[in-house]
Design brief:
By secondary structure, this protein is α+β, with helices and mostly antiparallel strands. The protein has one domain: hypothetical protein yedk fold, CATH 3.90.1680. Helices cover 21% and strands 39% of the residues. The longest helix is centred in the N-terminal third of the chain and has 14 residues.
């Protein structure tokens, strides 16, 4: 599960450009930066021809039970679930971050990021609910970096995988269960 992530423009030129573009187009109050929580609005990258365009979107699909939100979709079963199937096929997005957080069984908080890189792309899905665009983060089985902290982790995308993720359904389907890269773990 990925229940929080970081979006700190001061830590990454890539993230700073994305945040600046969203704030210029939609206003400074259109997104949150820092530690991102479910139901916060944050920038999401969507396909725009052969480039990616950042848009503000709210984190979490509404729950069918009417209470709370669904913030993650299991990559292994997303194509089988009515809530996510259409989004996997037609509405994939990228969640730009400076890392994500997980807590271990002792409630110790850890920040995960790619070694030597100041930004991290998470694979996501989006949809429109009652006129509002919302996104979820796709998760998969943990790699060796995370398994001692949590039993799930986000599906990660490299820069080279970003455009294929948005445009190539075959690649996207394969990525949902692919082995994830090793990460740097920092106690917070």
């Amino acid at each position: 599960m990925c229940g929080r992530y970081s979006l700190v423009p001061e830590q990454s030129k890539e993230i700073a450009q994305i945040v600046a573009e969203v704030q210029a187009r939609f206003g400074a109050a259109s997104i949150r930066t820092g530690e991102i929580f479910p139901t916060n609005a944050a920038p999401i990258l969507l396909p725009d021809g052969q480039k990616m365009t950042p848009e503000p979107m709210t984190w979490g699909f509404p729950s069918f039970k009417g209470k709370g939100v669904i913030i993650n979709a299991r990559g292994e079963t997303a194509l089988d679930k009515p809530m996510f199937r259409r989004s996997v096929l037609e509405r994939r997005c990228i969640v730009p971050t400076t890392g994500f957080y997980e807590w271990d069984s002792q409630k110790r908080k850890y920040h995960f990021r790619l070694p030597g890189q100041d930004w991290l792309y998470l694979a996501g899905l989006w949809n429109t609910f009652q006129g509002e665009e919302r996104f979820v983060v796709l998760t998969t089985a943990p790699n060796d970096t995370i398994i001692n902290v949590h039993d799930r982790m986000p599906v990660l995308l490299t820069n080279d995988e970003a455009m294929p993720w948005l445009h190539d359904t075959g690649m996207a389907s394969a990525k949902l269960t692919a082995l994830q890269p090793a990460l740097e773990r920092i106690a917070v």
